[in-house]
Amino acid sequence: MRQNILLIRFSSLGDVALTSAAVVNLRINYPGSRILFLTKERFAPVVEMMHGVDEVITIPDVASIRELAGIVAALERKRIDLLIDLHGNFRSRLVGKLITASQKLLYPKRRREREAVVREGGSALAVAHTIDAYNSALSEAGMITPCIRPQLSPSRAKIETVWTEEDSDTVRVLVAPGAAHGPKRWPIAKFAELAHLLDQTGNVEIVWVLADDEEHILAPVKSSLPGKQMIGRPLAELATMISQASITISNDSGVAHLSSGLGTPAVVLFGPTHSSLGFAPRGLFDRMVETDEECRPCSLHGSSGCYREEQFCFTRILPPDVLAAIDQTLETAGDLRPAVFVDRDGTIIAEKHFLSDPEQVEVLPGSVEGLKKLSAAGCKIVIVSNQSGVARGYFDVSQAERVNARLLEILQQAGVSVDGLYFCPHYPDGNQPEYARRCDCRKPSVGMVETAARQLRLDLRSSYVIGDKMDDCNLALAMGGRPLLVRTGHGLDQMKRLPPELIDRLVVDDLAAAAERIVRPEN
């Protein structure tokens, strides 16, 4: 029977955006479920950008008891099977108590731990990142949680772009100098100085974004700022602007997390707040700029005024330092290319139980043809493979490497060039102590593909994963890419785990058919 899952997170912008990873993990664990999301009206556009949410249910920013009762009654009629409270405040707990569900989960809010971080200062008592805290509520219920980064897609509605430069070499810089609290805002004069430094580099287009109630922030420098000023744009339009930008520059704010979720690298200025509180930007190429002041963090949300003669946590961050961070980020995250991540056993070569003999490598029909087609289309080709036989004691790392070397030799002789090959030797229940552990590289976890992305400058969100197991499909979802399941290897058996409506979209005969689907113009 199809499950109805209700996820609750009312606010704020950044917190809601960060729940997108948990939504992906829910979709991985319950591929045929219906996921409902309860949030405040103003954050509904963010939830609508999430992969896997089937229905957004909103609550007014200030809801009366009658309105709340009506929402609860409507949810009761939907017959919720699993309720997950990712907010943990009085109102969300009340809704959770009033709705009937066979299972209810509550994420650990960690307020006392975070207050301890503020009292002690620094990062010695750092709490888990908010995404990890959200995921812990799922993992305690037995779910796997391979998605560890926010994932959002901009609205498909046609929104006229604010960017005017069409030159592919133009760096589009979106600057968001606002924040919920004044002490969290890097001085606007420094933002202005940074903008002039950027403008002097040439080939840069700058767009400033602020909420309606933040327009006053620009007042001291408004008339002299280079670039466009976009005030009070709707969230959907803001998301489109961010998705079209090369980089986002912001304070510790919801815009930073929105940018991370949309896949645009963010350079984020941290003053009174601190990554140890669990809200650091989580995008793969995001970068923080901060100073090492003993008084940081000075409050949970950066709302407290500075008690020192000067707010050194910000005044000691200089525009040239931020410019250097921007340059470094663009150097690592600019001009990324798509890739096709391909499983080894059962996809490229014949499945043989814990293959350890290089002489037993047998390339499957269609594999060479498919890989050549992908390469000709300009795709980077990266092989990613779980090799738990190492942790189980069936063979050692050197044997696994010899098998891989033989595969690469065969492919090279056939005219196929592989851009990277990665394998995971770990397995939690193995008997080799060095490798018998949980790791972040065993598929469907994203460690291998993220390492490849950094080393080979890859865009994971425009990439594919091809494999013969659900772990390969789930890896694609966890990284924000697209999955294809081949019928070779374990594929025929694994496809039984897919909802019927997904089979035509995700399942292909073999690697050659997968390549054809990827390179067809209509895709």
Written overview of the protein:
The structure is a single chain. The chain is α/β, with parallel strands linked by helices. It is 35% helix and 15% strand. The strands form 3 sheets. The chain has a 6-stranded parallel sheet with strand order 8-7-6-9-10-11, with helices on both faces. The chain has a 6-stranded parallel sheet with strand order 14-13-12-15-16-17. A 5-stranded parallel sheet has the order 3-2-1-4-5, with helices on both faces. The longest helix has 17 residues, at 397-413. The protein is globular.
| Structural category | alpha/beta
Q: What's the overall geometry? A: globular
Biggest pleated-sheet summary: 6 strands, parallel
- Approximate helicity band: 25-40%
Given the structure, what is the number of helices? Answer: 20
What is CATH's topology name of the largest domain?
Rossmann fold
| Average pLDDT figure | 95
Which regions contain 5 or more consecutive residues with pLDDT less than 50? none
Give a topology summary.
Elements: E1 4-8, H1 13-18, H2 20-29, E2 34-40, H3 44-47, E3 55-59, H4 65-77, E4 82-85, H5 90-98, E5 103-106, H6 111-120, H7 130-139, E6 171-176, H8 188-201, E7 204-210, E8 228-231, H9 235-244, E9 247-251, H10 254-262, E10 266-269, E11 287-289, H11 312-315, H12 319-333, E12 339-342, H13 367-376, E13 380-386, H14 389-392, H15 397-413, E14 420-424, H16 447-456, E15 464-467, H17 470-479, E16 482-486, H18 491-494, H19 500-506, E17 507-508, H20 511-519
Parallel strand pairs: 1-2, 1-4, 2-3, 4-5, 6-7, 6-9, 7-8, 9-10, 10-11, 12-13, 12-15, 13-14, 15-16, 16-17
